[in-house]
Write a structure and sequence with these properties.
Pfam family, one: ABC_tran
Strand content: 15-25%
Keywords: ATP-binding, Nucleotide-binding, Transport
Family: Belongs to the ABC transporter superfamily.
Organism: Fuscovulum blasticum DSM 2131
Helix content: 25-40%
Shape: globular
Strand order of the largest sheet: 6-7-8-3-9
Order of helices and strands: EEEHEEEHHHEHEHE
Bound molecules: adenosine-5'-diphosphate
GO molecular function: ATP binding; ATP hydrolysis activity
């Protein structure tokens, strides 16, 4: 269970986010986060990732406060952020640097297959297209089999067909290999296709409607 209570993030006097309150149970596998540019979506993700300290409120994952980066939380940014001088395989292996070396090769190969790049382990990032590099960034997060996967517009750089494939893969994994996903998207079709729950952050900051549940009429 991810519990976010009265979360506020300010930069100096400027409130970038909140207060926002919501919780995400195991049954709410995917939370889609939508809202206009500048409403604090990326800020929320950085705070959930423990990459940016919160200013007010609390964030707990399975009862434990999130106070910094955690081994069971993985992040996919808009850009892949790969090390340019390291191979694709080495970049993905960084996601599990803390695990026994004997386990890593198979895990990396499985992650490469999940993003449909099984033959690209020895490639360097500059040899990849933008979309392929982004998929390597996704593999680096998936290889951890995180308890919570945080994604900031992860598929925006992909061509439409690859995007649909990656959405399908994500749906195959959530609930099992990856219990909960929080995904920021500006694409309402993507939000509706992937989400069990949608959080609408509506600007300006301070007038946020948290935890809006959207009910779709049954046919
Ligand atoms: P979104 O992802 O919804 O577009 P962000 O979370 O990136 O919004 O930003 C929310 C607001 O906080 C914006 O007005 C942005 O300019 C501001 N902001 C984000 N990061 C910082 C920072 N490090 N310092 C100051 N202001 C920031
Ligand atoms: P982008 O979104 O930057 O165009 P994509 O990942 O969608 O990048 O792929 C662009 C091109 O890269 C594809 O049209 C294809 O030619 C090549 N490519 C992508 N994935 C593979 C793959 N698994 N095997 C071989 N070629 C691929």
């Amino acid at each position: 269970m991810l519990e976010v209570q009265s979360l506020v993030k300010t930069y100096g006097a400027f409130r970038a986010l909140g207060p926002v309150t919501f919780s995400l149970g195991r049954e709410d596998r995917v939370l889609g986060v939508v809202g206009p540019s500048g409403c604090g979506k990326s800020t929320l993700l950085r705070v959930l990732a423990g990459l940016d300290p919160l200013t007010g409120g609390t964030v707990r994952l399975d009862g434990t406060p999130i106070t910094g980066a955690r081994p069971d939380v993985a992040v996919v940014f808009q850009e892949p952020r790969l090390l340019p001088w390291a191979t694709v395989r080495a970049n993905i292996e960084l996601g599990i640097w803390d695990q026994p070396a004997s386990d890593r090769a198979a895990a990396v190969q499985a992650a490469l297959a999940q993003v449909q790049l099984p033959a690209f382990g020895n490639a360097l990032p500059r040899q990849l297209s933008g979309g392929m590099a982004q998929r390597v960034g996704i593999a680096r997060a998936l290889v951890r089999r995180p308890r919570l996967l945080l994604m900031d517009e992860p598929f925006a750089a992909l061509d439409p067909l690859t995007r649909l494939r990656m959405q399908d893969h994500l749906l195959e994994m959530v609930g099992q290999e990856v219990p909960n996903v929080v995904i920021i998207t500006h694409d309402i079709d993507e939000a509706l296709a992937l989400s069990d729950r949608i959080l609408v952050l509506a600007g300006p900051p301070g007038e946020i409607r948290a935890d809006l549940k959207i009910d779709l009429p049954q046919p």
